[in-house]
Write a structure and sequence with these properties.
It contains 21 helices and 13 strands. The chain starts with 21 loop residues before the first helix and ends with a helix. It has a seven-stranded mixed β-sheet with strand order 5-6-7-2-1-10-11. Strands 3-4 form a two-stranded antiparallel sheet. It has a two-stranded antiparallel sheet with strand order 8-9. Among the domains are: 1-168, Beta Polymerase, domain 2 (2-Layer Sandwich), CATH 3.30.460; 374-410, no CATH class. The longest helix has 17 residues, at 383-399. By secondary structure, it is an alpha+beta fold. α17 crosses α18 and α17 packs parallel to α19 (356-366). A hairpin with a 4-residue loop joins β5 and β6 (98-102).
Length: 413
């Protein structure tokens, strides 16, 4: 591989080469792809790894696409070894043509999927047919920026003409947006998520795609809450979530999945997050549960199938946002970061400004330890009276901002 960054693009504006990113030059991936080529098959790295390389984003997963059938893929993988240790082939989605190759010695995992077309779909699940044509595989993908194929040498095939969109950082459906969405209604949320995570809303949102999402939003009712929750939590965690969620609200998509939700408080929350300073560096204390709480949907935890921990966090920050618990007590009862989240949501809800002094109060509480234990009051006090007295002394200690000593507290018995 000899191409450099200056020769990635052709004179006609088409992406021609992905360069030499570390994921592509990886010895295990090179060995795997060469094995397919030696067996007479095509194999390409496809989708996000190519897109994110051009966007200078971290690549965590490399997906591969091939004209080899699943049984051929399995055979090739299992023929490989490294230092006498064999590779493993895991049939993670064999019915859809996907086999996961597991390299020995922690060399990584690679999902390899046979070229395919959607033979039949109900908008949620697709029955696929395998194909020998890469063009069929490209046309069944969702967005033009997700349909680039890079071979082992880094040479790129742009089959759907996505280079213009990639250069413009534009998220656009392949072909007819209505048809793409009707194949899988979750693509509505993926449309907005990619706009947020890639920051492309700054260049505008594709009108045809946005119109199709608005028109077909009712189709999300047939998508499982688990799938919707996975997309929404990824979207709302992004720094640029507010403007994109605003577009979802205006198009009616947000209300289809979270009735009663509004982006206004969330936008204020994110603005407050960005004002948080540590050692002169901007470190936004963003938290998915707190951001979801800011949307205002009463049953957000159930609608998005949140984990029990996230569901509890949503209820806690909403509860404390509506109370007047002082910052030092929040820090003592919930720990530093949870207290910060409670306070940020309170400020956002009540249109209050960022208060840096309150963070010191939170830290004071988070580092405080109640000096009295039950043994200090026994045997003179026991049973329910013991618990009540401990709570009473703790309340006095908190009210005094933790300044009352153990000896002074015991004198109040």
């Amino acid at each position: 591989m000899t191409n450099n960054a200056g020769s990635l693009w052709g004179a006609d504006g088409t992406l021609r080469h992905v360069g030499e990113p570390s994921w592509l030059t990886n010895d295990f991936l090179q060995t795997l792809m060469k094995a397919f080529e030696d067996a007479g098959f095509q194999i390409y790295a496809v989708g996000g790894c190519v897109r994110d390389t051009i966007f200078n984003r971290h690549v965590s997963d490399v997906d591969l696409s091939t004209d080899a059938l699943p049984e051929d893929t399995t055979r090739i993988i299992e023929s490989l070894e490294f230092r006498r240790e064999a590779w493993k082939a895991i049939p993670t989605g064999v019915e859809h043509g996907t086999i996961t190759a597991v390299a020995p010695y922690g060399g990584g995992t690679f999902e390899i999927t046979t070229y395919r077309t959607d033979a039949q779909t109900d908008g949620r699940h697709a029955t696929v047919a395998f194909s020998k044509n890469i063009e069929d595989d490209a046309m069944r993908r969702d967005f033009t920026i997700n349909a680039f194929y890079a071979d082992r040498e880094g040479r790129v095939r742009d089959i759907v003409g996505g280079s213009t969109d990639l250069a413009a950082r534009m998220v656009r459906f392949i072909g007819d947006p209505v048809e793409r969405i009707q194949e899988d209604y979750l693509r509505i949320l993926r449309f907005f998520r990619f706009i947020a995570t890639l920051g492309t809303y700054k260049n505008g949102i594709d009108r045809d795609g946005l119109a199709a999402c608005a028109m077909l939003a009712d189709g999300l009712k047939g998508v499982s809450r688990e799938r919707i929750g996975a997309e929404m939590t990824r979207l709302i965690a992004d720094p640029d979530a507010a403007p994109v969620l605003g577009a979802m609200e205006q198009s009616g998509v947000l209300l289809r999945i979270l009735p009663g939700a509004s982006v206004l408080t969330l936008a204020r929350l994110i603005d407050l997050e960005e004002q948080y300073l540590i050692e002169g560096r901007m470190i936004p204390p963003s938290d998915v549960a707190t951001r979801l709480a800011a949307l205002g949907c009463e049953d957000v935890a159930d609608r998005l199938r949140l984990s029990k921990a996230d569901a509890r966090k949503v209820e806690l920050v909403k509860l404390e946002a509506g109370k007047t618990t002082p910052p030092h007590e929040l820090g003592y009862r919930y720990g530093y970061w949870t207290a910060v989240h409670c306070l940020l949501l309170r400020w956002a809800s009540l249109l209050q400004p960022f208060d840096e002094a309150a963070l010191e109060d939170i830290r004071l509480g988070a580092e405080a330890t109640f000096p009295i234990v039950a043994a200090d009051l026994m045997p003179a006090i026991s049973g329910k009276a013991l618990g009540d007295k401990l709570k009473q002394l703790e309340a006095l200690w908190i009210e005094a901002r933790f300044s009352v000593s153990k000896e002074e507290l015991l004198k109040k018995l």
